[in-house]
Amino acid sequence: MTTPINPYSSHPKADVRAQAQLLDDVTEGVVVRCGDEVVFANSAMFRILGAEPGDTSQLEKSVEEWIHPDDLRRINQMYRQRMAGEDVPSTYKFRLIRLDGSFVWVQSRTSVLQWAGESCAVAYLTDITTEMEIRDRQKFSSDLFKNIFNVTPEFMLLFGLRNNQVIDVNPAFLNVFGCRKDTVVGENVSNLGMWSESTFFERFIEELKTTASLTDIPAALETRGGIIRHFRLFARRIEGASEPYLLMTGRDVTEDMSHELELQRTRDAAELSNRTKSEFLANMSHELRTPLNAILGFSELIRDGIGGDKLAGNHSEYASDIHKSGTHLLAIINDILDLSKIEAGRLEAQISLMDPIPCLEMCMRLVHQRAHEAGVTISSELDFQIMLEADERLLKQIGLNLLSNAVKFTDSGGQVSLILARTGDGGASLAVEDTGIGMTADEIVVAKRPFGQVESGLIRSREGSGLGLPLVVAFASKLGGRVSIESKPEIGTKITIYFPADVVCERTVQQLAAGA
């Protein structure tokens, strides 16, 4: 502690040299200001300024050249007030300009003394630049944390690890969980009602006893309105002055999970489509080769006259077989082309008011021979008053596909029925019911899928492309209808097309008379 100067010396002309010597021995920087001039600075002050001790050129500078411009007005104001005897702080901080142009923070203790008979201000200055830099860094970190804490879209929760008492939450937390800050701060974290699993928080805290942080922990939390959403939690332990704290951050990943699930479903669907197409092509290699081999074989017999006159009488039978094989091959190709149009979105429908009865009766006639050969009985129950706004070609393909499939999958002695009837809502239903082999629920899903076949490549017992039902579903949708399938193994299958009321109307008296 330096010996204070007596500002009330009994000698108006105090010994300035004695005062200067005394002040020069002080370890703090000392500067004496009279008006706008610096009349004395000790060796420690010169070192603070980065100058050589005793460098009198520094004393030739005005006060404005010593003090940082941003602090000059405040320091001058306090100087004038102090010299006028007003009450001003004796301790304060400001910046001085060093010899190299940089600045240094100092803390000043200032008083008034008599110097060479004049009242002057003497300031004892301590270099606090390092302290101020540390404080600025701490303030920057604190401000940065506050800004991040308040503006981040992820919820943040700060609480004590010993008592689990909430210290602070950010606005995102209040928004996510629909609560007010005053009802959360001071509450125990386990009582916040956000944990959808009662033991999750206890297990979470237990895990933190062995590690300083946890990252990317999945959790289902109950948010605003009681809605369960999925989060990824991040937590870090912070050592406080009196107790450890925990900062928990939560990122809502519900939408991300939904997108990921949708992408996974899309990938699975693409893989399934590729597999079913591959299986379909493998089956088609058999379906296409069989009729082609028959066509080539029988045509070669006719062309080369193999067997001579003895087999010449069989040429008509050969031609019939060639025709059947060609018809079967054409049907397969037409199915493939129709499905290609559907997948490309190029399936067209010529909608007009039509009588469905002649179209359905034609379908019955076309499959009658096949049913007779298979030992299957076909019957029909048709409402002759129904008129449809539909495409005759698509309706015919629906009827043929349903009847052909029913006959194909019904054993000898079975029955197939075609039914056209009105529905209770004013619409109409077209149904084909059989007593065939039937399908399980899983097989129905496969059968409705494009390129899907209930029987796979090497064990398929019945010919066909396996596109009949997918085509029916697509054609019905094009006509505004929907498909319903009821089936049980070894009992049979009923496939129904429901047409809405806006495409169904009653036959007029004139139309009934014309039909008669």
Number of domains: 4
The CATH topology of the largest domain is given as Heat Shock Protein 90
Q: Average the pLDDT over all residues and give the rounded result.
A: 80
Q: Order of strands in the sheet with the most strands?
A: 2-1-5-4-3
Question: CATH superfamily name of the largest domain?
Answer: Histidine kinase-like ATPase, C-terminal domain
Low-confidence stretches: 1-14, 454-462
Number of strands: 18
Please identify the structural class as seen in this structure.
alpha+beta
CATH architecture annotation name of the largest domain:
2-Layer Sandwich
What is the C-alpha radius of gyration, as a whole number of Å?
49 Å
- What amount of the residues lies in strands? 25-35%
Helix content: 40-55%
Biggest β-sheet strands, sense, barrel: 5 strands, antiparallel
CATH class of the largest domain: Alpha Beta
Shape by Cα distribution = rod-shaped
N/C terminus separation: 131 Å
> Please, how many helices?
16
At a glance:
Strands 2-1-5-4-3 form a 5-stranded antiparallel β-sheet, with helices on both faces. The chain has a 5-stranded antiparallel β-sheet with strand order 7-6-10-9-8, with helices on both faces. The N and C termini lie far apart (131 Å).
